[in-house]
Request: fold
Amino acid sequence: MPACPQTQSRVFLRRWLAGTFLQEQKEMLLEHSREVQQRSARVEQIVCDTEPRTKHELSLYVHVSNISWKLQGAESRIAGTLCSPGKKDVRSIDLDPAGKSQFDIINSIWALMD
Reply:
């Protein structure tokens, strides 16, 4: 028994709308992908621009303060080495910041520098 013309036109309309919908979704996802790639490229450029400057600033800080920070394996501690070339002295910095204010921590480091 053949389907009535109304039923056939509804099926066709559904298929057409589904195809259009899927095409729109595809185009929207492609546009989103392009935007993400552009953002990624901008972030990469920012990193490339700022990394050398940051390394230079950190190197300058180490040179001026004579503090070399221990950054690996001391997530819960403030650790490093303080060198006093004039006094020919090397001191270890190993502080537990728990329960101390930033002010107290900085004063402890200054005390080691004197």
About this structure: The CA atoms of residues 39 and 45 lie 10 Å apart. The chain has two domains: 1-65, 66-114. DSSP finds two helices and three strands in the chain.
